[in-house]
Specification:
three-stranded antiparallel beta sheet; mainly alpha; 123 residues; globular
């Protein structure tokens, strides 16, 4: 348990061990992947279609990071062709449930953002 003696739980500290998780979770593709997976399990290409605009490489890297951090479960069936499905773990579900209100807020407040951008551009 010595490794846990070194944990620093203060995201404002440069030594904080949670910063890599924060960096992963606050990435655009991770947020969208987590919220999409909150809808239910997805196969890779279906998830890629759901998260419109993400490249295959970026989605793969994002899912790998989320799996590493215990947010996503990857299940590969040994069939021909191979079938791989992604779903949320309980930790990932908890994270997604916290992110959903943020996405809803962003969508709801876009008229205000557009107005602010127009005002800023006219300066």
């Amino acid at each position: 348990m010595e490794e846990f003696d070194e944990l620093v739980a203060d995201v404002f500290s440069r030594r904080c061990t949670s910063r890599t998780v924060l960096e992963t979770l606050t990435g655009r593709w991770a947020i969208l992947a987590l919220v999409a997976l909150h809808e239910g399990p997805y196969r890779f290409n279906a998830l890629r279609r759901r998260v419109d605009g993400v490249s295959e490489k970026m989605l793969s890297q994002t899912l790998h990071a989320l799996e590493r951090d215990g947010m996503v479960l990857r299940v590969a069936e040994t069939s021909i062709p191979p079938r791989v499905e992604y779903s949320l773990t309980s930790l990932g579900r908890e994270a997604a449930e916290r992110l959903i209100p943020l996405l809803e807020w962003v969508e709801e407040r876009m008229p205000d953002v557009v107005s602010a951008r127009e005002e800023h551009a006219s300066r």
